[in-house]
Amino acid sequence: MCVFQARLTIPANISVPLFDVCKRLDLKPIVCHASVCLANWKPIKETTIFNASVIDIITFRFTQHPANRWFFTLTAQVSLFTITQIEAELAEAICAIASACLHGKIEQSTMQHICNAVTKVTSTIQRMEEYVPPNIFYNNLRYFLSGYTQNALAEQGGIIFEGKENLGPQPLHGGSAAQSSTFHVIDAFLGIKHADDVEAFLAQHREYMPPKHRQFIGWVRENAAKISNLRNAFGYQQALCAVKKFREVHISVVTKFIILPAKGNSKIGTGGSSFMHLLHNIANDSKS
Fold first, then answer.
1. Residue 44 contacts by C-beta under 8 Å, 6 or more apart in sequence?
2. Most buried of the four, 54, 125, 137, 142, by CB within 10 Å?
3. Which residues form the signal peptide (predicted)?
4. Is 211 exposed, middle or buried (0-12, 13-18, 19+ CB in 10 A)?
5. What's the mean pLDDT in 244-257?
6. Contact (CB, 8 A) for 132 and 71
């Protein structure tokens, strides 16, 4: 068996305190969704609205292009369950899910809240190109979100943290939308089942979420399974269709920002094709 040796290391004066902080937070020592989106925003001015146009990022300014800010703030908009929005569909959906799991019953409005939230998220992600040109994302920003598990970086086997050499090379995933708890929660509640390879992929990325998010997903999955006739609830099929529509739109966004710019680069293109296969499987799992 061929064993790859990591060629990149992080010096101990950075890696040791980084590991200590990440251990306290129960997060991975790499740029991830929790760090670049959930905990990386501030209001531009005093407002009760929460959306990408009125917030700025705090750090992780990888490039000078406006795409850097917009990519993270727009992603934060569809990930944070804030009740300060004028249109708080996502917060209402999560509250409806929590209430149903807590009381063991579905209200007539539960599925409508989910449908409204997913529809809102679907329209929001289509705004990505307003300030993020696909070529800028692909050729610039994307590299800062790459992990050590795919493409050329996989050949290194991971990254070595000096002072933590006993752990060996760390094959860490980069930042990914799969690390957002939003659709993990919705999938768990609606009882959407994924194939083993897809579930393994999603389970890996749940390890990059804040611990309370992981716990909430598990709690929802456990308690939603106890609700009788959930799949026959009013609006269930509409909610399922909304989730499938979101995933179809997400595929079109990924195609525009990753697959099409990768043409001519066979190595990245192959990786992109494999990733698209995974996304198509996830979308198909959302069928009624």
1. 54, 55, 56
2. 137
3. none
4. exposed
5. 94
6. yes
Q: What is the reported pTM?
A: 0.88
Q: Are strands 42-43 and 9-10 parallel, antiparallel or unpaired?
A: unpaired
pLDDT in tens, 162-204: 999 999 889 998 899 999 999 999 999 999 999 898 999 999 9
Half-sphere exposure of 269 (CA within 13 A, CB side): 7
How many residues are given for the chain? 288
Q: What is the CA 187 to chain-centroid distance, rounded?
A: 13
Q: Per the annotation, does 65 bind a ligand?
A: no
Q: What is the pLDDT of residue 282?
A: 80
Contact assessment for residue 90 and residue 217, using Cβ atoms and an 8 Å cutoff: no
- Domains of the chain are 9-286 (1.20.58.480)
